[in-house]
Design goal:
Number of domains: 2
Low-confidence stretches: none
Distance between the termini: 5 Å
CATH class of the largest domain: Alpha Beta
Shape: globular
CATH topology of the largest domain: Rossmann fold
Strand content: 15-25%
Radius of gyration: 21 Å
Helix content: 25-40%
Largest sheet: 7 strands, parallel
Structural class: alpha/beta
Number of strands: 14
Number of helices: 16
Length: 378
């Protein structure tokens, strides 16, 4: 059986790329297709595969301006020749699923989310964008929405990463989706005996993750905050931050594990589809203070900061209600008063539900269940 795996673009090892890496481990002969391939900082299992790129990869400054070429990506996908492939797996939160397959082939889409910037989170992108980018995004959105709905109709089976995104897929595409939580390398993290005095925020520094909320809140709190990661917002955030906030930039997986384990709590101020970092923090024995929306409601055993909290509850974090500075400040202050009630071993137990082994087992069983018998024997 010949297998093709299509991922929207490769320029680093974020959550979507980690899912792709584990799927490749399940299917060692699968070929890779993508719009953009930059091998720096990618898992070797991705770089070792036969990779075919669309013409987007050859356009001027594609490595920096690939998102500007979004309107061309539907055409680029249709030009891929997948006629020899029996199973097609698309990894989607950008344009990836709109490929053409043989009538008897099977197309499974692991949808991390319908494209945020053309659907429910577009207001966040527009608010943070400049005038030209806002104009451009508004102009291309109607076309991309029509294509996105059409391409959903070409998928035989949807998998998704959370109840949160499952509902989004049903609302936008009117398609059912099976939940298989993404793989988190929980075994790579361990707790420390004594915590340091800092809080931590980690991940891509992009507008929809709302890192600005954490910066302004901690400016007012005056507590130490380490900001791990890079992204479009980095320089802006540095200009806002006071001396109690430290920017580490990119760190290795080992360094991230050490920093998470030593911190008092992870600050997670944006709404994520699933959110791997909160699971990694808990695997390191560290609780989470998060906006109470999206995937954290499934991965963190939390209560809202203004709820009554009882001794003996196996909490792994606190939620705040709205993406507002004062809400986050109130949550941090409440956390400090109940910090002693949250145990590292309870956090680790919570994280253990989202292991790599569980993902591999569930994904493999799903594929075997939905594939026609004629393909399974190939």
């Amino acid at each position: 059986m010949k297998i093709a795996l299509i991922h929207y673009w490769f320029y680093g090892m974020r959550g979507g790329e980690k899912v792709v890496a584990e799927i490749l481990r399940l299917f060692p002969k699968a070929d890779l297709f993508t719009h953009l391939f930059i091998p720096n900082k990618l898992d070797p299992i991705i770089c070792e595969r036969h990779v075919t790129t669309t013409f987007i990869n050859r356009l001027p400054l594609a490595g920096k301006l690939y998102q500007a070429y979004l309107p061309l990506m539907p055409t680029a996908l249709k030009r891929l020749d997948l006629s020899e492939y029996d199973l097609i797996i698309s990894s989607e939160s950008g344009p990836a699923k709109g490929v053409v397959k043989r009538p008897d082939a099977c197309h499974i889409c692991y949808c991390h989310t319908p494209m945020r910037y053309i659907w429910d989170q577009q207001p966040v992108y527009l608010e943070q964008a400049g005038i030209l980018k806002r104009w451009y995004l508004k102009r291309i959105t109607p076309y991309l929405r029509r294509w996105d709905k059409w391409s959903a109709g070409q998928v035989d089976h949807f998998i998704t990463n959370s109840e949160n995104v499952q509902q989004r897929i049903e609302n936008i595409y009117q398609c059912p989706a099976t939940i298989i939580y993404p793989p988190v390398a929980v075994g790579n993290f361990s707790a420390v005996g004594t915590k340091s005095d800092y809080f931590i925020m980690a991940g891509q520094l992009v507008p929809y993750k709302r890192p600005d909320l954490a910066i302004v809140a901690f400016n007012q709190l005056g507590l130490p905050l380490k900001v791990v990661g890079t992204g479009l917002e980095l320089e802006k955030l540095k200009s806002l931050a006071k001396n109690n906030i430290e920017f580490t930039g990119y760190v290795s997986d080992a360094e991230l594990s050490h920093l998470l384990a030593g911190s008092r709590a992870l600050i997670f101020p944006g709404e994520e589809d699933f959110g791997i970092i909160p699971v990694e923090a808990q695997a390191a024995g560290t609780p989470v203070i998060a906006l109470g929306r999206g995937g954290v409601l499934e991965t963190v055993n939390g209560r809202y900061y203004n709820d009554q909290i009882n001794t003996g509850e196996e909490l792994t974090g606190l939620f705040f209600n709205n993406p507002q500075i004062q809400d986050l400040i109130s949550a941090v202050k409440k956390f400090i008063t109940i910090e002693h009630l949250i145990k590292p071993e309870v956090c680790q137990k919570q994280a253990s539900q989202f292991s790599v082994d569980r993902f591999r087992k569930e994904f493999k069983l799903f594929v075997e269940d939905v594939l026609p018998a004629t393909l399974l024997v190939k």
